[in-house]
Amino acid sequence: MSFHQAAMIPDWGATTLFTQGQYKPEGEVLDHLHQRGVSLEESAIVRVVGDGEHIQHVELADGRQTAIQGLYVAPQVTITSPIVAKLKLETVETPMGTHIKVDEFKESSTAGVFVAGDLSNPMQNGTFAIASGTMAGVAAHRALMFNH
To answer: Which of 43, 83, 96, 102 could lock onto 60 through a cystine, CB 3.0 to 4.6 A?
Structure first.
C-alpha cells in the first residue's frame, strides 16, 4: 500500500518514498511512481530528528541526512481489546491490519453487536469513521425496534 500512498502525495509537494530497503518497486509500479515525480530512497531511516512538533531531517543507515517537512507512515491496526475474543467476534486480515468482520449495516458475526470506526474500516479516515458510526447507530436502533 505504500506505493499507492506515495503516488498520492506528490499533489501536495516533493515526495520521497523511503523503502527501508524492504521493497523494490518494479515495472508498472516503478513507472507510475516516476511519472508522479516520486523519488526513491532505499537506505533505511534510523532516526527522525526534530523538536517534537517540527521534523528537521531523517538520518539514514548509510550516514546521510535528508531534510523533510513531513513524514507519512502507515501503521497496521492491531486489536488489543479482550472484548473482541469474549464476544467471539470474527476478524478479517487486510493490508491495513486486523479488523472486525461486519456486514453492510456494521453488524458483527455476533448478532446484536455492531462495530464502527477503525475496528471495522480497513481505510482510516475521519469521514469514513463518522459514516461508519452513523450506520452502526441506525442499524442498532433498527435492531432494537424489530427484535423486541
So the answer is: 43
pLDDT at 93: 92
Using a pLDDT cut of 70, give the percent of the chain over it. Answer: 99
81: left (phi over 0), alpha (psi -120 to 50) or beta: beta
Distance from CA of residue 121 to its chain's centroid? 10
The grid cell for 147 is 427484535
- Determine the 3-state secondary structure of 89 from DSSP: coil
- State the amino acid at position 109 in one-letter form: S
From 115, 104, 138, select the one nearest 146 (Cα to Cα).
138
Burial bucket for residue 29 (CB in 10 Å: 0-12, 13-18, 19+)? middle
| Beta strands in 15-144, from DSSP E residues, in sequence order | 15-18, 38-41, 45-50, 55-60, 65-67, 91-94, 97-100
**Which amino acid does the sequence have at 17?**
L
Please give the radius of gyration of the chain, using alpha carbons only, rounded to the nearest integer: 20
Cell numbers at residue 25, please? 518497486
| Residue 44 reports pLDDT greater than 90 | yes
